[in-house]
Amino acid sequence: MAKITFPDSPPGVSSPADGYTVVDTWHPDVTIIYGGVPIDAMMALTRQWRRNGLFNLAVPRIIGASMVICRTRAVSDALTAWFCPKPAPGAGIAAWWRGPDVGASSAVMACRLLGASDPFHVYIYGRCVEPNPAYPHDAADLGRCFALLEACPEMVARVPEMAAASPTWARIVARWAELEKALSVDDSAAVYAILRKCEEPIADDARQNGD
Fold it and tell me: What span, in angstroms and rounded, lies between the C-alpha atoms of 17 and 40?
């Protein structure tokens, strides 16, 4: 298969204050949308691209777009690698932010352990606070959390602080070693089972004692 390549930079677009701009001339297999999309237009776009493409979730935050739609998975993966290269171990928080492994739960970790400042506060505004900030739901989510720690090893020792984020995070932290072991051997089913268990509320003392 021929290597998929892209222009060096995305198109510079000034979105209208009361609308949005669709750019489909930058690359034949990529559509970029800038600006706010009204709900009715969003529904129409979703119906259109549900059949002919998929949404890339990593690239928009890097290029300042609202949405990026790719025709195929291969194009989406190549676009992510092009604009969001995976950082080297220990590369630091800025390199992680521009990489492919930023998700809601990993951003919550960065936000809480490094301070709620840009760009994390913007990315997860309203999701980094009580009562229940975003947490990993599956192996992919958890993998992004560990990618953050790989890029910022100084944060590893502070993972226990996440227990204060929410009851669910407290249960996840309590089983962190189990989760790390399961993830290290690519046991996605075990990771999912543990995380689902962590979502369950802790029984009160009376129930635990059978009263």
Answer: 18
Residue 133 in contact with residue 113, Cβ under 8 Å? no
Residue 40 token pair: 């009715």
Q: Exposed, middle or buried: residue 107 (CB in 10 Å: 0-12, 13-18, 19+)?
A: buried
Sign of CA dihedral 210, 179, 109, 33: negative
Lookup: tokens for 181: 């072991």
Q: Please tell me the predicted confidence (pLDDT) of residue 3.
A: 78
SS3 assignment, position 184: helix
Q: What pLDDT sits at residue 210?
A: 42
186: left (phi over 0), alpha (psi -120 to 50) or beta: left
Using DSSP's 3-state secondary structure scheme, residue 24 falls into strand
Give the span between the Cα atoms of 183 and 142, in whole angstroms: 8
Q: What is the arrangement of strands in the sheet containing 30-35, beginning at the earlier edge strand?
A: 20-27, 30-35, 67-70, 54-56
Q: Supply angle C-alpha 133, 139, 145, rounded to 5.
A: 50
Helix (H) or strand (E) holding 32: strand 30-35
Distance from CA of residue 127 to its chain's centroid?
Answer: 12
β-pair type (30-35, 20-27): antiparallel
Whole-model pTM: value is 0.75
d(CA 139, CA 29): 29
